[in-house]
Amino acid sequence: MADDNLKVPLIGLNTTSNTSYTQPMSINLSTEANNGSKAVEILNKIRISSSISERLTKRKQLTKRRRLVSDIMCLVGLLGVCLMIIENELAFHNTGEYQLRFIIKLIITVTTFLLIVLVFYYHSVDIRLYAVNNSIDDWKVSLTPSKVLAIIGEAFICLIQPLPWLPDSYISSSANSSTSTHVPVNVILSIFMFTRVYLVCRCLIYHSTIVTDSSSQSIGFLNRVKFNFKFILKAYLTQHPVLSLAVILFTIFLIASWCLRAVDYNSTKDGQLAFLDAMYLFMLSLTSLGYGDLIPSTNWGR
């Protein structure tokens, strides 16, 4: 009896424990399954948010790097243009500083080589930034044929410079053979160096408040607006029409006047056209007045 009394509570305890714990175990399994699915969703959200934060961080770094490279390219390009003007002015005044002119041409060559390297590096950063903005894993997908042509064209524009090893060979540019009016090859190459002004335009884009403002970027991204130079120029012309037009026209006036001075040479008169005379002649030609007191001496000047 003692053994039976001892067995009853153990059996009852075991049976009650089995019956009482059978249903909660099934509830716990379903609860764990629900919790597991929620945990998976939470992990997916964490992964998505972490990937988005990584993309935003990488985008910010690449944007700063692209702007910095653009600034360096602008400085290097303008340095080459300034050295080109100095070298040509020494040649126009016949100072005889051939060694100094050769050294300046070598420095221009070094800056040109550096500018070419910066062009390729800039576009590599720009391609990676495009891949990050469009969630592209492989940046090679962003390298389209049009992009390749743009890189080659920009490198070719930056490659133009006066050649230091080129002798003083001249191209005849006068219709009258009796006058020895010629334009040096390096002067022609120097004029085409002014195409580097596009670097200033690109620098203005990245330093414009329209591009640097986060709200403007968000609105532009939602409306698929490209913040290129055309858009920035329209914005500046709308906000500051007088100042923008004055800066553009004055820049064109100075560059065109110096180019006219560079290509106009008359050996029978005063030699190279003076800069003030070139400015005066350019204004007469632009306004189509033509008093006749100054006329170009070369076909390039005409």
TrEMBL record:
GO CC aspect terms: membrane
GO molecular function: small conductance calcium-activated potassium channel activity
Record-annotated membrane-spanning stretches: 68-86, 98-122, 143-163, 183-205, 242-263, 275-294
Matches recorded under InterPro entries: K_chnl_Ca-activ_SK (IPR015449), K_chnl_dom (IPR013099)
Keyword Transcription: no
Top-rank taxon, per record: Eukaryota
Keywords: Membrane, Transmembrane, Transmembrane helix
Gene3D superfamilies, sorted: 1.10.287.70
Domain named Potassium channel: residues: 249-302
Protein name per UniProt: Potassium channel domain-containing protein
Origin species: Didymodactylos carnosus
